[in-house]
Amino acid sequence: MRAPSGRPLYGAQYSRLLKAPRYEILALVFVRQPGFLLDRDSAHLKAVLGGKTVQDVGLLPKHLDEEVIQKAWERGLIIVTANQDDFIRKIYRFQQKQQESDCHDLFGLVVVPNKNFDAQRVLGPLKRGIRIEGKDLSRRDIHDQNLFVHVERSGRVDVKRFPMCFYCKKLKVRDVPEWLERLQVVGLPKPKVTQ
């Protein structure tokens, strides 16, 4: 079974669909607007973006980033955080699990500034959709194409894409739209140097 984006539905998403009545499947796959999973450093944005905090999905206050990634994958949520480098590194690791026989693409990462910014002004476009390279990107596009969206304090938005997971790359399970091919791939951050 595939989502409208062409991504295969596996893992937790597929299991949920198999147990749901037909009308719930249609609502889940075609109608529902993708939600956000707000990491602890962005939980204060719930009033602006909506979505769920890490506590809402059952994680303890001292959770690991890997637990946030796992919950986002299981629930099909876009991660929102101010912790850019750690999440990029851990998402790469999660998506390259070679022993898995299902899709481990995530559903997008939105990096926001740390506190003390005009959230309503800066994040308003994210809720309505953003425009890049002549294309209007909706929250659905961020979700379905596993995009990296970096929102700066000034309101400037930078959009890149994550590479496909090991499984999708190996089996070539989905077509990549032309506009997505033109986006730069998110690079791995340089390791932190400790002295």
Which runs of at least 5 residues are low in confidence (pLDDT < 50)? 14-31
How many angstroms does the end-to-end distance come to?
50 Å
Pairing-aware structural class of the strands and helices? alpha/beta
Q: Classify the beta-strand content into a percent band.
A: 5-15%
Overall tally of structural domains: 1
Percent helix range: 25-40%
Description:
The protein is of the alpha/beta class and 195 residues long. The protein has one domain (35-181). The protein has nine helices and eight strands. The chain has helices spanning 11-19, 22-31, 46-49, 65-75, 84-95, 119-128, 139-144, 166-171, 178-181; strands spanning 36-38, 52-53, 78-81, 109-111, 130-132, 135-137, 147-151, 157-161. A six-stranded mixed β-sheet has the order 2-1-3-4-7-8. It has a two-stranded antiparallel sheet with strand order 5-6. The longest helix is centred in the middle third of the chain and has 12 residues, at 84-95. The termini are far apart.
